[in-house]
Write a structure and sequence with these properties.
Structural class: alpha+beta
Helix content: 40-55%
Radius of gyration: 32 Å
Number of domains: 2
Pfam families: PAP2 (PF01569)
Shape: globular
Protein name: PAP2 superfamily protein
Largest sheet: 8 strands, antiparallel, barrel
InterPro entries: PAP2/HPO (IPR000326), PAP2/HPO_sf (IPR036938)
Organism: Chryseobacterium joostei
Number of helices: 12
Order of helices and strands: HHHHHHHHHHEEEEEEEEEEEHHE
CATH class of the largest domain: Mainly Beta
Strand order of the largest sheet: 1-2-3-6-7-10-11-12
Length: 461
């Protein structure tokens, strides 16, 4: 009996061990299956956070701006011809290379960047090859005449493409070390593009398209070389730990469309419609805390004045004519308080109120008719000269940050200028004492109020 009890106990104990082993085996299999199923589930990356989307935003905006300004390129050149007709300073031939020179100077000086010297040179070389192919393929296919009439290879700007390739090279190598490198690089590239326009060598769309090609060429150059090395950079893990400050100080390039809220030449009776123009410039602010800072802007805005049809039939049967007034241009600068509020690490609201100075371009007034015997059937009848005036400006903007150092900003500004304009008529009128006294001392006080809607490429430092 004792043997039977002992045997039964041993069998029960063995059965228990087997059951436990079966349960453990089953649970282990289930856990492995569950683990495999979990690892197969991957979170979808939001569209705006996809790496290729982030890298393509700036070039896309530049190409879109080139397309949007294509129809206005003649008007933009007219502004240049009025302000700086004799400008001829060839700094742009040299400044385009400055960011690349800075990269090699920093590396030879021992400052660690994203890559070592050899790999950085490979990435830069690949970028230049891509840029050269894109620029020259388009240049000699489009065959757009330069604004100075010298050649038919204006679009896109090779200088701008080179400058922005070099600026992107500096940004790639040292932007993570300090955002100031990126700001300096893209600032010099922007000045290069501006020089091409001021020297009358390129239309504005040429420069915008060249800038987009330069940025995308560098992105592609790094993409291919990174694939060869199978990583994102030699020193990236070290540099990625470097953090910027928490204050939203920034420098931005801006471009927008302006909408007049008043008839600019109402008192002068030279227009009867609210005008639409464009604005471009630089804006920046230094913040002393996360909320408050001081900043300002330097901008240029231009408004083409639509011709007015008039009937001069006063018995001499002059018939219908057009009064043509050259566009109004405003060069303004202002300074004032800035307020910032971050909704998240990606979205930021900025408010501002600035006061400053506005200088307005002088211009001419013409009368045009088929009956006027001149090459363009028009006759100059007057010149106008606005006085410099006080300008105040207020605005709001919302920024989407691609990373802590770079963002895209939608902004809206309201500007108000009270301009005093003096008109001086032609020599023929000056010879008539009565008309000279009445017309050549004519002064009109105009309200120049307008709203701007536009985009800024914002770099934080």
């Amino acid at each position: 009996m004792k043997k039977l009890a002992l045997a039964s106990g041993i069998l029960l104990q063995l059965h228990s061990y087997k059951a436990q082993d079966t349960v453990q085996s089953r649970n282990l299999k289930e856990d492995i299956a569950l683990l495999n199923s979990n690892t197969s589930i991957q979170e979808k990356t939001p569209f705006l956070k996809k790496e290729w989307v982030k890298k393509s935003v700036a070039p896309t905006l530049l190409f879109a701006a080139a397309a949007a300004t294509w129809g206005e390129k003649e008007n933009i050149r007219e502004v240049r011809n009025r302000y700086l007709p004799a400008f001829k300073v060839k700094y742009d031939d040299y400044l385009q290379y400055a960011p690349a020179v800075a990269v090699y100077g920093l590396k030879l000086g021992g400052v660690k960047g994203r890559n070592n010297l050899g790999r950085a040179t490979l990435s830069y070389g690949a970028s230049l090859v891509i840029m050269g192919i894109l620029v020259n393929s388009i240049k000699y296919t489009a065959k757009v005449e330069r604004p100075d009439g010298s050649k038919n290879n204006s679009f896109p700007s090779g200088h701008a493409a080179m400058a922005f390739t070099n600026a992107s090279f500096l940004h790639k190598e040292y932007g993570m070390v300090n955002p100031a490198y990126s700001i300096a690089g893209y600032g010099s590239a922007t000045l290069t593009g501006l020089g091409r326009n001021l020297n009358n060598r390129h239309w504005l769309p040429d420069i915008l398209a060249g800038a987009g090609i330069g940025i995308i060429s560098t992105e592609l150059g790094y993409f291919f070389i990174d694939k060869i090395y199978k990583n994102k950079g030699d020193n990236l893990s070290m540099l990625s730990r470097i953090q910027g400050n928490d204050y939203p100080s920034f420098l931005a390039i801006k471009l927008g469309t302006t909408f007049g809220t008043t008839n600019f030449l109402k008192e002068s009776e030279l227009d009867d419609k609210k005008q639409i123009g464009f604005e471009g410039g630089l804006e920046g602010a230094y913040f002393f805390s996360k909320k408050w800072g001081v900043g300002g802007d330097f901008s240029f805005s231009s408004f083409p004045i639509k011709p007015m049809k008039v009937n001069l039939d006063d018995g001499d049967n002059y018939g219908e004519h057009e009064i043509i007034t050259q566009s109004l241009g405003f060069l303004g600068a202002g300074i004032g308080p800035y307020f910032s509020h971050e909704f998240s690490d990606k979205w930021q609201l900025t408010l501002k109120a600035t006061a400053g100075y506005s200088a307005t371009a002088s211009g001419k007034v013409f009368i045009k008719s088929d009956s006027i015997d001149s090459p363009n059937h028009q006759l100059e009848i007057a010149r106008y000269k606005p006085k410099p005036a006080f300008r105040w400006n207020t605005g709001a903007s919302i920024t989407y940050k691609f990373n802590p150092g770079l963002g895209l900003t939608f902004y809206t500004d309201y500007n108000e200028i009270k301009s005093t304009i003096r008109y001086r008529f032609s020599d023929a009128i000056q010879e008539n004492e009565e008309l000279n006294e009445e017309l050549n001392h004519m002064i009109a006080k105009e309200k120049i109020n307008y709203v701007t809607l536009g985009l800024r490429l914002t770099a934080y430092f």
